[in-house]
Amino acid sequence: MSTEPESPAAHRALYRRFRAQRFAELVGQDPIVTTLRRAVSGDRLAHAYLFVGPRGTGKTSTARILAKAINCTARGDDGEPCDACPACVSIRDGRALDVIEIDAASHGLVEDARDLVMRALTAPSELRKRVYIIDEVHMLSTHAFNALLKVIEEPPDHVVFILATTDTHKVPATIISRTQRHDFRRMADATIIGKLSRIMTSEGGEADDDALALIARLADGGMRDAESLLDQVLAFASDRLTAADVREAVGLADGASINALIDAYVAGDAPGALDRVSEMADAGRDMAQVAAQAEGEARRRLLASASDPGAARRLAPILRTLAEAAGVGAREGRARLLLELLSVEGPAAEAGRPGSSASPRTEAVRNARVPEPALAPAPASAPKATAPAPGDAAVAEPEDPAPEPPPTPRPAPTAPGAGDVDELRGRWAEVVARATPVIKPLLGECRPIARDGARLTLAFPEGRDFMRSRIAQRAGAIEALLSDMFGGAFAIECVATNLELEPLTVEQAIAPTAEDPEAQALLDGVLKITGGELVDAPEVR
């Protein structure tokens, strides 16, 4: 009978092969390592631990090492497990029946928690203590947490719980208060580079310093992410690892292209920005990575421009959109679309800033819009009321418009100061009237309450969190509208308040004129959906 030749050992991921097996091998978490070592050596172990921190910072590895230290039969005086005794070897290989790792994402039901409680009551089969490592514990259901509450508070002497999570705010306070909490920090780039360099030496390879630095920067403080990226790049590179290999393997754009894109955004060069985006897409760059790179460069420039408020105001809306492209846009697969929209909308949003390259066009638009509100006040009709005789009306009519422009210094409040929130509040009904149908209902639900330089605070009643989040997503359009009406730059922020805000009637907020059929249809739709009715309410300012 013939047998198949034995196949070579399968490749194991670097982060699995180089996972820390002893406290001495853990990097970047020295305070936690010192605390756990002394707790083990001094027999001051807690009955339950909570490890909190970003992904890839060593929570699970530390939990396994702590399980070894608890059960090691040849442990050193410093609390370090030997990693050679039968207990340590079985835990390292995943064969220890008394060290149970549970993924709460797939075992988060109350039935799973009850089963765990029943098993915890039984004595360990081969080790000193039974250790339960519950990963992503925040995924447990509310009923599962309640089922575990008592056993985590007072477990049997032979049981230790180690809970790990990336979202501690989702863990009930009743659980947190019954555990000893340790917060894992993001790794410093230098720490990541040091371990990557040791891995390269162990693998018999060579890498440029800037290549390892780029991987560390992309990992954003996560050692596992860095090791996975290195594994990916090593599969791509043929010889010595260079920064160009990293960029090509991951789909990054070169720094010159990113700088050119940001320059085009800042200058309001829509064609140039679109060309840069198209060139990087045609070159096969990952647009989610491009958005993240652009976000990092824009943030660096914003921080560097702290002494130049004008430059900071130009960069703020650009950075906001780039952050959306690198976050939600990347997850939804529309990072390129957001980069292209920023190319077109960025210059328009900046056009309202005095002194910008597009300011002449903006001034023309503003001058075309300003007369609209000037028709409503009484001064516009005053000259006609003093017209001479009826027979001279035809002659006086052409001359009346000449003195008319002086009342149109409505732009006088177009450059409100830091304390001019009263002017904004007084004209808020006009702001709502000029808003687009998308943001008009949102603006009707808030009022300006404070202004500090360019920052304008909009207050929402408590319980309107949805409306507040929606208006924050439309910040660019609202800031452009305010700039067109009042001049200067605006950066809005939304807060909840329990103050009584001055009300605008539904007609003012949604249907400024009865002759507007679209606005009336929108009003009818709102009333139908909400089941409300239209009432007259005095405007309070």
Give an overview of the whole structure.
With 541 residues, the protein is α/β, with parallel strands linked by helices. It is 51% helix and 9% strand. The chain is built from 27 helices and eight strands. The chain has helices at 14-17, 30-41, 59-71, 86-92, 110-120, 142-153, 173-176, 189-203, 209-219, 223-236, 243-250, 255-267, 270-282, 287-304, 309-331, 335-350, 359-369, 371-374, 382-385, 393-399, 421-426, 428-434, 440-443, 465-473, 475-486, 506-510, 517-530, and strands at residues 48-52, 99-103, 130-135, 159-165, 180-183, 447-452, 455-461, 491-497. A five-stranded parallel β-sheet has the order 2-3-4-1-5, covered by helices on one side. A three-stranded mixed β-sheet has the order 6-7-8. Helix 5 links the parallel strand 2 (99-103) and strand 3. It is globular and about 80 Å long.
List the SSEs and their pairings.
Blueprint: H1 14-17, H2 30-41, E1 48-52, H3 59-71, H4 86-92, E2 99-103, H5 110-120, E3 130-135, H6 142-153, E4 159-165, H7 173-176, E5 180-183, H8 189-203, H9 209-219, H10 223-236, H11 243-250, H12 255-267, H13 270-282, H14 287-304, H15 309-331, H16 335-350, H17 359-369, H18 371-374, H19 382-385, H20 393-399, H21 421-426, H22 428-434, H23 440-443, E6 447-452, E7 455-461, H24 465-473, H25 475-486, E8 491-497, H26 506-510, H27 517-530
Parallel strand pairs: 1-4, 1-5, 2-3, 3-4, 7-8
Antiparallel strand pairs: 6-7
Helix pairs in contact: 2-3, 3-4, 5-6, 8-9, 9-10, 9-11, 10-11, 12-13, 12-14, 12-16, 13-16, 14-15, 15-16
